[in-house]
Specification:
By secondary structure, the chain is mainly beta. It has one helix at 2-25; strands at residues 26-42, 51-64, 67-83, 90-107, 112-130, 135-137, 145-156, 165-174, 179-181, 184-198. The protein has a single domain, classed as Beta Barrel (Porin), CATH 2.40.160. The chain contains one helix and ten strands, in the order H-E-E-E-E-E-E-E-E-E-E. A hairpin with a 4-residue loop joins strand 5 (112-130) and strand 6 (135-137).
Length: 199
Amino acid sequence: MKRSTKTLFRTGIVCAGLLLATSVHAQFSVGLKAGVNLATEQYPGFTMQNALLGYGGASVRYKVGIIALQVEGVYSGEGGNLKAMPGGQVNKYRESYLDVPVLLQSRFPFGGYLEFGVQQGFLLSSTYNFNSTGVVNTRNAYTSGNFSVGGGFGFEFQNSYAEGLGINIRFMQGTTAISSSGYGPIKTSMVSLGLSERF
């Protein structure tokens, strides 16, 4: 019994030490971000063109050593353009999502970082516009969610005059169909470029 008590006490001391060490070196921060998406949709049988759309939102980050976990909430404009042949009219597909990326980051002392993770998108709206003739609500033709995987890299300034300011580029590939056509499932892909500020 005495030996078990000592073992339990020692285990408690070790766990408390690890917890204290983690909390001492851990850093919790929040931030804002905004930028542009170069978005498109993979429409089977057709070549979609990119659409340049905006995004903006907030993030929280928990960092321990060189590893960080970042969770974001982002309003994101997505979609793509399909040029009809032979007239050259443009079909504009537009969706807006509340995207929630969960990213694991590997951070470097000079301010750079790599990130990989997943993203769940919640559809807010969806429209279609043929050659600027009028916007049609297509919400019922789309699924309510869009799951993506991807990664990116970025840099955050360490100098006192610009500390907290950062730039990031990220690629996300949709793995679930957001809608379907007679040719097959439609999926998204997107490159995002933006600025961030941490507090």
